[in-house]
Amino acid sequence: xxxxxxxxxxxxxxxxxxxxxxxxxxxxxxxxxxxxxxxxxxxxxxxxxxxxxxxxxxxxxxxxxxxxxxxxxxxxxxxxxxxxxxxxxxxxxxxxxxxxxxxxxxxxxxxxxxxxxxxxxxxxxxxxxxxxxxxxxxxxxxxxxxxxxxxxxxxxxxxxxxxxxxxxxxxxxxxxxxxxxxxxxxxxxxxxxxxxxxxxxxxxxxxxxxxxxxxxxxxxxxxxxxxxxxxxxxxxxxxxxxxxxxxxxxxxxxxx
Length: 256
What we know:
It is built from six helices and four strands. It is mainly alpha-helical. It folds into two domains: 1-114 and 209-256, no CATH class; 119-174, no CATH class. The longest helix has 15 residues, at 119-133. It is globular, with a radius of gyration of 21 Å.
């Protein structure tokens, strides 16, 4: 999911020529990260810095004394050696909806109210419906409203197939961590697509290595955990055995 976020100019990290580089490190600090942060996190789109905490990211709230950055490498302030039971298995954590007045020094944690639905979701629902219907102009209007709010340039046009990919990517990014992804890939019937990545190996940084912020040993993609391989029967829930016992003519979902 980290790789799905675009660069600041709206291009993908694989597009080339946009500065994305996993083997070099930032020489200067910004509001979002410390000097020495891997360049894979540099010049990304604004939502990346709002939603993802990465190695070298500035602390999004009032930091504990002496800490100005997050260190996920092995010996870092949030690494496996220092916090053996409370480190991220992938080298990333979510920071979306973390209240900015949370204070790690005093132990102050502020809850934020959950939203039932956001305007961006309504726009994306409508954009997807219009694109699938074939009304490109209307679909683009509302897709671009979401893109522009996120600091990305407007899309000028495209085929239904091209814009389908764009609106699905926009849903992935804009609604990330809000409980939509699980259902979206299933209603689109793309759960077995590599880009949807619902099963198999999931990767992260090397949590077993690294002694400094710019240590290349940490910045290696490693398997963080595995899930069972996808089977199409997972598109449907099994009928509970208790219901089958009650009604002998019920038919179990295919594959169970």
